[in-house]
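Side project, low priority. Logging it here so it doesn't get lost.
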Amino acid sequence: MIEAVQIAYAKEEFPTQFARSLFLAGPTPRSADVQSWRPEALRILINLGYDGVVFVPESSTGYKASYADQVDWEHKALEMSDCILFWIPRNLQVFPGLTTNVEFGLWAHSGKIVLGAPPEAPKMDYLRSLAGKLGIPQAENLEDALKHSLQFVGEGAFRSQGECQVPLHIWKTRSFQAWYKAQVEAGNRLDGARVEWVFRVGPGKSIVYCWALHVSVYVAGENRNKTNELVISRPDISTLVMYKPEANPLQTKIVLIREFRSPAATSDGFIWEVPGGSSFTLADPLEIAVEEAHEETGLRIDAARLNYVGTRQLAGTFSAHKAHVFSVSITDEELAWLSGQVGIPHGNPATHPSGERTYVEIRTMEEILAENLLDWSTIGMVCQALQPAGTPDRM
């Protein structure tokens, strides 16, 4: 493990293992008579006890690489960094920071940058305004900016080889770890990754909800690298198939949720599915299933009544996330109560950022198969849940 700060200067080899990494972005001196701000940043980091990697886009010897080589190194280092500190002591005569403006725009939506600039630095209003809208931490002196950066990376997480190309804010998500665990257990190896985009939610956009990585995976069973695909993922969901059984399986009644979701391509523009969802605060799939069913239908089911159906991906070539499926046989009284909820909106209140508004619908299995409103994944969940106990995924 790395125990002291490790500095990677421009055009030097990239580290093959680290727990946390920081890129010092900002104006670079264009002549020898202008002093760089980065040596002072390194002194502050050492005094603060930082023991990770620091990418410094300046030569350690004064030698200047070709412009193309310099840009290529910077792009790779920026992608590898867990946090990018933009310190912009702009001076229009010696530190104009024109390239810095472009780089800031490129990384503004990455979810891994900090912005710092002295109060008197000119031409900073637009960058500060954008940082405010995107929840980017800001500071007016170099030490505070570095402290924000260290707070962002925290204790880090040890990575090696291709893992180093997965930045910390994605690496630490449950969704990434679940995908990566499956690959490792299959004998495969991550040889490289590049973040294509990240979608953040919550206060200050502090929660990584969905991400996309362009990966290079060594496929052990085929002795080759797969390099032309994205891995997209988000938090797993838990769902609850609530049903009232009948002698004729096609007449079994299923409790569904109808909700407007923007990606819907159904005949009525709504998504029809069984109650379910994800949580940033709960970790137990069973508990999530109970809470989601209550939120979306108004009916609270005792967790002890639920049967575990199974866990599978929903659309394996599109997203790595999975559905943890549970089922419960409801009573006549519960069915009658739920039938009385048809047309009544449930879910989070309209003022909630998610804008969730769900409606209870009751359909027989025969109607579900005929109406073409449920997607294949949901139909699969329902069919699996209705299988007799003892069949695969119902043990």
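Brief comment: The chain has a mean pLDDT of 94.
Revisit when time allows.
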